[in-house]
Structures are given as structure tokens and as C-alpha cells.
Write the C-alpha cells for this entry.
Amino acid sequence: TAPFVATIAYLGSPDWGVVLAGYWGAALLLVTFLAVALLAAAAMHEPVGGFVFGVALLFVLMLPGWDVFARLLRGHAGAGVLEAMPLISPKHWLDRMAAGDVELTALVYFATVTAASLLGAAWLIEGRRAGQVRPAGIVRGAGWAVTLIAVGALVVAAAHQAPSLGFDLTAEKE
């Protein structure tokens, strides 16, 4: 990262607040991706299966953040759903942070997804240590996962509806 920062400093006069916010967002994205990858690895028995499942989970998590996905769903989903879709994608929150706007909602999003993924991975690993994971345990775990995801979505939605709390790190305070 140091050569990149030195290069942009040499080429021009960057907005250092935006640079800092972008790096902070990238670090949060990396931590979230690592937690989701750990969840995928804990869910599979084979390393290759964990890798493929992890890539698939990350792709599904990133997909709602792209405009192409919203355009595909335009005729099939309501306006409220189309507006809410980007909120579940880390791409949306990274883009906001990379613009120099560090919102509380983005921090809540990254913390919620990371915590949910790590809790799911811990549950799966503990289940494997205790013995064979039984179908009743899988159903119970899936129920907890759905509940945790729903609570996380509600927390992010509530934080998004609240007055914008955060830091504007741009030089012009735009």
C-alpha cells in the first residue's frame, strides 16, 4: 500500500481523507470476506469444496450491489425491493466509504455480516467436535442462521433509516 500512496502523492494532490476512508473500507471488506470464507470452509468437509462454496457465497453477497442485477429484476420486483437490494451488498458500502463518507450504517453492516459469519463457523466447528451433525441440529442451526440474518438486516435497515451518523473525510466536506 505504501508504494500506491506514494505514487498518488507524487502524481497529484489527493484528498487524504478519501484515501484513508477507502483503505478503511477495503480493510473492513477484507475482514468480512475472510469471515464468510471461514464459514464456507467450516461448512464443507473438503478444502476444494470450501473454496468453491466460499467463492459462491461471496459472489451472491456481492451481486445485489451491481446495477446490472437491479436491471435484470426491474420487471419482476417492486420498487422497494430494488431500492433495498444494494443495502445487502458490501460493494454498496465500500463504494460509499471510498467516496470519503464513513457512515455508521456501513460500520454496522460490516460488523453484522462478520459476526454472523464467525458465529456460524463457530457453531459448525463445535458441532463437528461434538460428533456427527444430525439433521435436527442442521434444522436448528439453519433456523438460528435465518434469525441472525433477519436481525442483522433489521439492524442495518434501522441504521439506514436513522439520521446519517458518520464522518465526512473529504477535504471539502461535501
In short: Strands lie at 101-103, 166-168.
